[in-house]
Amino acid sequence: GEILDVDKIESGNYQLQPQWVDIPTLVQNTCHSFGAIAASKSIALSCSSTFPDHYLVKIDPQAFKQVLSNLLSNALKFTTEGAVKITTSLVHIDDNHAVIKMTIMDSGSGLSQEEQQQLFKRYSQTSAGRQQTGSGLGLMICKELIKNMQGDLSLESHPGIGTTFTITIPVEISQQVA
């Protein structure tokens, strides 16, 4: 897919275009597209899903993919050894609504409390980021897009251990006829 318009996202003028999406497939494909980068750094990249079979969710696939790509790109950038793991699940399921829960966990350099607070500012770079390229814009876009989707982005990080981003997004759901 194409890159989303940063200015529109920042100004809140990005119009979400929700459609019925098979999330596990979208996540697998996005994950797969980062396989070569992970392999070149000898990082184990794994992608798992506990989505129930035959469920589609109504979401903007471009926006969701952009968020996942940005977070995955950062996780790989800041991880020098170990693993990056993505898990996707559908929680709080009722008749036609549920919540997508996705975690992106890395064994990278981790962030101090101070760095975590700076993270979503427009062009922030953490101390670890001096060796790497900037991530500020990508994370800010993630936060904005998730907010547009009525979702939430949180992180837990420990220096020297790694970082876990958790995304939750409420969605309409539909069961496909097998």
From TrEMBL:
InterPro entries: HATPase_C_sf (IPR036890), HATPase_dom (IPR003594), His_kinase_dom (IPR005467), Sig_transdc_His_kin-like_C (IPR004358). One of its GO terms (cellular component) is plasma membrane. GO terms for molecular function: histidine phosphotransfer kinase activity; phosphorelay sensor kinase activity. Its EC number is 2.7.13.3. Residues 1-173 form the Histidine kinase domain. CDD domains: HATPase_EvgS-ArcB-TorS-like. It catalyses: ATP + protein L-histidine = ADP + protein N-phospho-L-histidine. It comes from the Bacteria. It is an enzyme of class 2 (transferase). PANTHER family: OSMOSENSING HISTIDINE PROTEIN KINASE SLN1, TWO-COMPONENT HISTIDINE PROTEIN KINASE. This is histidine kinase. It comes from Escherichia coli. The lineage of its organism: Bacteria, Pseudomonadati, Pseudomonadota, Gammaproteobacteria, Enterobacterales.
